[in-house]
C-alpha cells in the first residue's frame, strides 16, 4: 500500500490543517494530495441516517458540484458522507475522503470498496493516524475538524439535532470557513440540526448549487451535460426528472405513457445508470 506522509512545515502539508486547534504533526495520505488541494473543495456532510429528501439533495449537490470540477470532501461515513462520495464519482468527479482510522484499516468496513473507487478516480484518502494504530471514539470528532480544515465551503445537507455534522460546523466557523446548510422539513427530526443552524445564523441557506458556487467565488459555472435517452420515452422521463419531477407516480402521470412502457423505460434508465432510485419510489439523476 503506497502511503505518503506530509509533515508540518513541509510544502505538501495542507495549509488548512494548520488552522486546527491542535494541528497534527503528520498527515498520512494515498493519492495526489497536491492536485486535490489545488482545486476548490466543498465538504458535504450530514447524518448517517438519511431521509429520501436528504438522499435526493445530497445527490444533487454532490453531482452538480463535481460536474463543475469541485473536489468533494467528506468523511467516508455511512449516510450523507457515502452518498456524497458516490454521487461525485458517478458524475466523473474527484473526492477527498478524511478518515477517522489508519489507511490500512478503513472503517466502516462496508465502505472499503468506496475508498478504492475514490482512489481509482484520482481522489485522495487522508488520515491523521499512522498505519497499525487503534481507532478510538475521539478520532471521529478529530476527523470532523480535519474535514472542515481541508474545505473551502462546508455544506450540511441533512442533520439531526445531535449529529456530528454540527461539530464540523462549529470547527468550520472557528476557522472562518464558509458554512452552508440545506433547509429541511420543519416536522422532520432529521432536519432539526440544519434548521437550527439556519435559525441561529450559524449557516447560510442554500437551495441550489449556484448558492454554493457563489460562496466559492464562482459566478460563471460550466454548462451542464445532461444524459441523453436512447428512446423518446427515455428522453421524456429524463426531461421530467431534470425539471424536478422525482416521484414515480407523478412521473407516470406527467409522461402519459402506458404503465407497461413506463416501467420498462424506467428500468432501462436505471440499468444504464442514467437515473438512480432515491427510495420511496422517487428517482434522480446520478
Report on the architecture of this protein.
This protein has helices at residues 33-37, 52-67, 80-90, 112-120, 138-149, 165-174, 192-199, 209-215, 232-242, 248-255, 259-271; strands at residues 4-7, 26-30, 41-46, 71-74, 95-99, 124-127, 153-158, 178-181, 204-205, 276-279, 282-284. It has 286 residues and is an alpha/beta fold. It folds into two domains: 4-215, Rossmann fold, CATH 3.40.50; 232-284, Arc Repressor Mutant, subunit A (Orthogonal Bundle), CATH 1.10.10. Strand 3 (41-46), helix 2 and strand 4 form a beta-alpha-beta unit. It is globular, with a radius of gyration of 19 Å.
List the helices and strands and how they pair.
Blueprint: E1 4-7, E2 26-30, H1 33-37, E3 41-46, H2 52-67, E4 71-74, H3 80-90, E5 95-99, H4 112-120, E6 124-127, H5 138-149, E7 153-158, H6 165-174, E8 178-181, H7 192-199, E9 204-205, H8 209-215, H9 232-242, H10 248-255, H11 259-271, E10 276-279, E11 282-284
Amino acid at each position: 500500500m503506497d502511503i505518503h506522509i506530509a509533515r508540518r512545515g513541509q510544502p505538501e502539508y495542507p495549509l488548512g490543517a494548520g488552522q486546527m486547534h491542535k494541528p497534527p504533526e503528520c498527515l498520512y495520505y494515498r493519492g495526489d494530495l497536491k492536485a486535490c488541494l489545488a482545486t476548490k473543495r466543498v465538504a458535504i456532510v450530514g447524518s448517517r441516517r438519511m431521509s429520501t429528501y436528504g438522499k435526493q439533495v445530497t445527490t444533487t449537490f454532490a453531482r452538480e458540484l463535481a460536474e463543475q470540477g469541485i473536489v468533494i470532501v467528506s468523511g467516508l461515513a455511512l449516510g450523507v458522507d457515502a452518498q456524497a462520495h458516490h454521487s461525485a464519482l458517478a458524475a466523473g468527479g474527484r473526492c477527498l475522503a478524511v478518515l477517522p482510522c489508519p489507511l490500512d484499516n478503513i472503517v466502516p468496513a462496508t465502505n472499503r470498496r468506496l475508498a478504492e473507487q475514490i482512489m481509482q478516480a484520482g481522489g485522495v484518502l487522508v488520515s491523521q493516524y499512522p498505519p497499525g494504530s487503534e481507532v478510538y471514539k475521539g478520532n471521529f470528532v478529530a476527523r470532523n475538524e480535519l474535514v472542515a480544515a481541508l474545505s473551502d465551503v462546508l455544506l450540511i445537507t441533512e442533520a439531526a439535532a445531535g449529529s456530528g455534522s454540527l461539530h464540523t460546523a462549529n470547527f468550520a466557523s472557528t476557522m472562518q470557513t464558509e458554512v452552508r446548510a440545506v433547509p429541511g422539513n420543519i416536522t422532520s427530526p432529521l432536519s432539526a440540526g440544519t434548521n437550527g443552524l439556519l435559525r441561529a445564523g450559524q449557516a447560510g441557506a442554500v437551495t441550489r448549487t449556484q448558492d454554493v458556487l457563489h460562496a466559492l467565488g464562482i459566478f460563471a459555472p460550466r454548462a451542464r451535460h445532461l444524459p441523453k435517452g436512447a428512446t423518446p420515452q427515455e428522453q421524456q422521463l429524463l426531461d421530467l426528472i431534470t425539471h424536478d419531477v422525482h416521484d414515480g407516480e407523478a412521473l407516470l402521470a406527467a409522461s402519459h405513457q402506458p404503465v407497461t412502457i413506463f416501467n420498462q423505460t424506467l428500468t432501462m434508465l436505471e440499468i444504464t445508470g442514467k437515473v438512480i432510485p432515491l427510495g420511496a419510489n422517487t428517482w434522480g439523476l446520478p
